[in-house]
Amino acid sequence: MNAFLALIGRDLRLALRQGSAVGTALGFYLVAVAIIPLGLGPDLNLLSRIAPGILWISFLLSAVLSVDALFQEDRDDGSLDALVLGPLPAELIAASKSIAHWVTTCVPLIVVTPLAGLLLNIQAEALPKLLAALLAGTVGVSFVAGAGAALTLGLRKGALLLPLLILPLFTPFLIFGVGAMATSAGAFEQSILLLFALSLFSVAAMPFAAALALRLGLE
Amino acid sequence: MKRGGTFSLARIEPIPGANLALSRTLAVEAVVAEGLDCQRGGRTVVSGISFRVEAGRALALRGPNGSGKTTLLRTIAGYLQPAAGGIEVIRPAACASKPADEGVYHYIGHANGIKPRLSVIENVSFWQGFYSGAADVEAAEDALDAFGLLNLASFSAGHLSQGQARRLGLARLLAARRPVWLLDEPQAALDVASTRLLERAIAAHLASGGLAIVSTHLDLALPDALILELGKPQPAQ
Description:
The structure holds two protein chains of two kinds.
Chain A: H1 2-18, H2 20-40, H3 44-65, H4 69-76, H5 79-84, H6 90-119, H7 126-151, H8 158-166, H9 171-179, H10 187-217
Chain B: H1 6-12, E1 30-40, E2 43-54, E3 58-62, H2 69-77, E4 82-90, E5 105-108, H3 120-132, H4 137-146, H5 162-175, E6 180-184, H6 192-207, E7 211-215, E8 226-229
Parallel strand pairs in B: 3-7, 3-8, 5-6, 6-7
Antiparallel strand pairs in B: 1-2, 1-4
Helix pairs in contact in B: 3-4, 3-5, 4-5
């Protein structure tokens, strides 16, 4: 457990010192959300209707940006060799990386989402629902992304392949994330529960997929 | 890491702070390979390797470039699956219940495993805490001291020279003790004085009952080491 915390602590500290990965994701998110209204014209009703979908899509695209560095840096500088010899099984190494990704990328993105929503004229009563859906769903997003990053480890141009690989896997998160905003009775509760279920499944299953890929990536 | 008995031993040995008493649960009697064929990318690189290294001894791997020294070391460490044969870590009967190869190896490859964004002491402290499960600042500082880096402790690791970065990578060996060291050209980028520090660290490790498997094509003094000559690269079949 201490080794697990030490690894997460190191990754958070590195992300904090580096700043570029988080900054790129945040910047991409805000820029994407800011230019979409320019393309759609000044129809405020239209914007507030499609705001949740745009926010979710921009969120997922931004979250993918920082994923490829998740294992690649550790592999390139030899840290990954040393990590897998340590007391943690590869599954927990992968899980700690996904947790670090969620804390350093998804949480900052969620924090700026109210501001991004403002640019899209999102309804005030829709915002809490959106934030709840993001909190429930993005944990799973980070774990799916972690497995994808492990799978493309060691491939040349893996960073280009990665979005192709994992964006389709985000479809269920997107469907239920936007579904949570529907106005019909019970839609929010059902969607949130399904998002939780997706996240729990990802947390439970994805580290095993990632560990398998990591072992292959070390060859 | 238990530090019992360290002080009296440390006074005798030239290595400052090297924790010489390997905790008993980590002890290893021997590492044995039998009929080992090592493959990389589907091609058998070395074949028919058999050796037995007892605790307290070193095994030096020698051979020209491409003779499979790195492949053999990575196979022993478990990164690569052997094509045939196997490696066995023999533990004393007292800890036979533990999985044979769990927590036994340190592997130092061509890359140093250090983060340029962290300071020197943060780098070594991370590995110390990660491997041993409890932060021990003293052990981390002792490890730096043994490789002559203590005066650089608060420097950013990104500003180190090649040789200093190599020494920082090697300091991991002493920060958290493990019985089997797998070292791939450990003296690369080291000057003569630093190579002596490395030799002293290896000697102290062997004296405390550890063992080391070292690939080297340069002069690295390993007193009464077993020597395994790896042959010429074999043509692809």
